[in-house]
Amino acid sequence: MILGHSEKIKIFKDLADKDGLSHAYLFYGPEQVGKNHFAKALSAYLEHGEFEESKRLLSETLTVLPGEDKDSIGIDEVRVAKTFLYRKPVNSEKRLVIIDNSDLLTSQAQNAILKITEEPPKTGIIILITKNPDTLLPTLRSRVQQVYFSRLKSDDLKNFLKKERGLADDEIERIVKLSFGRPGRMFDLIDTDKYKDLLKIFNNLKKDSKVKRSTIEEISKEGDYRELLDYLIAVLSEKPLENYKLLAKIMDAKQKMGDYSTNKRLQLESALWNI
């Protein structure tokens, strides 16, 4: 299902129904807010009449992935996309090419897409997806319709967790705080062991010094502690007056984590020892 973006869904359904869709779009905004899901749902609507990410085969949609090096999307991938795009659709009025992580497009690949947008096929649509549109050439950005996807409201996430997952109110509050308005992040937390692992760490940090020291040592091996610190901030923020000193310490530690000259282990131990 598509969480949020109800106004965009209404607009794009209306455009599709009236054959008013543009030949090229740029979906941009924070990571994990649903840009890719929205593009695939649009594909499903054009092919099957349902604006949901479909489990059925979408024969008129091509998703472009990075090449063999996995670090870039080059001219070869764009050539394949172009061939696909210019073929006449059979099961839909349109053919869609979705290029996620379009910031990985090489300059040569971007120029090739630019040429497609200058002489677009009547039945073809390109959707570029990125968190940062500035990574694309200005000339390419000028040829596509830009659509911004914002973070979701907390209430949208809360209502979903309440109705679809039946979670307790306090658990919902913590998960929503940790999700930062990003449904993709929310699903990462509830559909994997990530949330349970964070809860276990938090409980261990409240035990005796031996368990606490062992827990901090384990955490320090991970290298990136920001997700844990985000979780602790979410939990401690439930009682801000009671925990304000500890909150300040953890927030300070999180800020310093980005400084390469900082001893992250010492920062972590200092922040977590008094929980």
UniProtKB/TrEMBL annotation:
Database matches in InterPro entries: DNA_Rep/Repair_Clamp_Loader, P-loop_NTPase
Superkingdom of origin: Bacteria
Family matches, as Pfam families: DNA_pol3_delta2
Transmembrane domains' residue ranges: none
Any one GO biological process: DNA-templated DNA replication
PANTHER family, alphabetized: DNA POLYMERASE III SUBUNIT DELTA, REPLICATION FACTOR C / DNA POLYMERASE III GAMMA-TAU SUBUNIT
Name of this protein: AAA+ ATPase domain-containing protein
